[in-house]
Amino acid sequence: MFATEGNFLRNTKEKLLAFMTMGITPERLALCIALGITLGLVPALGTTTLLCTLTAFVFRLNLAAILLVNYFVYPLQLAMLVPFMRAGEKLFGAKPLELSVELIQSMLKTDLWGAVFGLWKATMHAVTAWILIAPILIALLYIIVMPLLKRLSPKRLSHAS
């Protein structure tokens, strides 16, 4: 049946903790979480799985852990598209893109290539804004998550029981 929000969060927590019992250290898992969240926010739809996969390969991180986190933040990626686009417009001094389904459909019908170029340009501006905050976000998330994972590490859990 359908999982409740509480069950989903509990299952996600259990899966992340299970990674630590498989030999992944709290430090590596914290890095997976920080990168999974940050890469999951890239304001270019359809790119996050590839980015996470490449990152996991390059940094020898646990692919399942980083993808689990990436998929978990997907709704946040959608919520952050417009703020990143607006930040990119401010960075580049670009004219704000009118964002409504009707307007985009109208643009696509009247000037397909103009619409594609305009949306691509807005996406690139948004990605640039994301690139500027990504290193700070990764560092902050790592600093926040690391102590929590160390407290929950299997060694500490086994000493407590």
Attribute tags:
single chain, 161 residues, mainly alpha, 8 helices, disordered C terminus
Protein model, in words:
Residues 156-161 have low confidence and may be disordered. This protein has helices at residues 5-21, 26-40, 48-59, 63-72, 74-92, 101-110, 112-152, 154-160. The longest helix is centred in the C-terminal third of the chain and has 41 residues, at 112-152. It has one domain (5-156). The protein has eight helices and no strands. With 161 residues, the chain is mostly helical.
Number of domains: 1
Mean pLDDT: 85
Q: What's the number of extended β-strand segments?
A: 0
- Rg estimate, integer Å: 19 Å
Query: What is the helix tally?
Result: 8
Helix content: over 70%
- Shape estimate: elongated
Helix and strand sequence: HHHHHHHH
In short:
The chain is an all-alpha fold.
SSE blueprint:
Layout lengths: L4 H17 L4 H15 L7 H12 L3 H10 L1 H19 L8 H10 L1 H41 L1 H7 L1
Helix pairs in contact: 2-3, 2-4, 2-7, 3-4, 5-7, 6-7
